[in-house]
C-alpha cells in the first residue's frame, strides 16, 4: 500500500493534496480506508457551495459492508465534486488517490493532519 508523500492525512483516513489556507485542494479517502470498507457502491457528496467543517461529516461512502461518514480534514467552501463517482463509485477502491477523489475545497482552516509516514505508522502500514 503506497501513500502519496506530498499529501496530508487525517486520523479519520481522509487525504488532502494541499494543506495551505487559501489553497483549493482535493479530498478523498485512503486506500487503507477503501480496502477496509470493501466494495464501494454509493457515495453521497457535499454540494458545490456547501461549507465543510474540520472533523464534521461532509458526506457518506456506502459499501457492501457498511455506511461510513466522510469527515472533512479542513474547513472551507466546496468548489467541485467528483461527478464521475455517481456512476462509478468503485473508482474509490481502484484509484483512491487520483480518479477516486471526492470533493475539492477552498481552505479557510486546516485541522490536525499527518504526513504519509505518520499515517502509515499510526495504522501499522
TrEMBL record:
Modified residues (N6-lipoyllysine): 65
BP GO terms, sorted: glycine decarboxylation via glycine cleavage system; protein lipoylation
GO cellular component: cytosol; glycine cleavage complex
CC cofactor: (R)-lipoate
Matches recorded under InterPro entries: 2-oxoA_DH_lipoyl-BS (IPR003016), Biotin_lipoyl (IPR000089), GCV_H (IPR002930), GCV_H/Fam206 (IPR033753), GCV_H_sub (IPR017453), Single_hybrid_motif (IPR011053)
Gene3D superfamilies assigned: 2.40.50.100
SUPFAM superfamilies xrefs: Single hybrid motif
CDD domains in the record: GCS_H
Domain named Lipoyl-binding: residues: 24-106
Highest taxon, organism lineage: Bacteria
Cofactor note: Binds 1 lipoyl cofactor covalently.
Pfam family, one: GCV_H
Keyword field: Lipoyl
Function: The glycine cleavage system catalyzes the degradation of glycine. The H protein shuttles the methylamine group of glycine from the P protein to the T protein.
Quaternary assembly: The glycine cleavage system is composed of four proteins: P, T, L and H.
Similarity-based family: Belongs to the GcvH family.
Name the UniProt record assigns to this protein: Glycine cleavage system H protein
Species for this entry: Corynebacterium hindlerae
UniProt gene name: gcvH
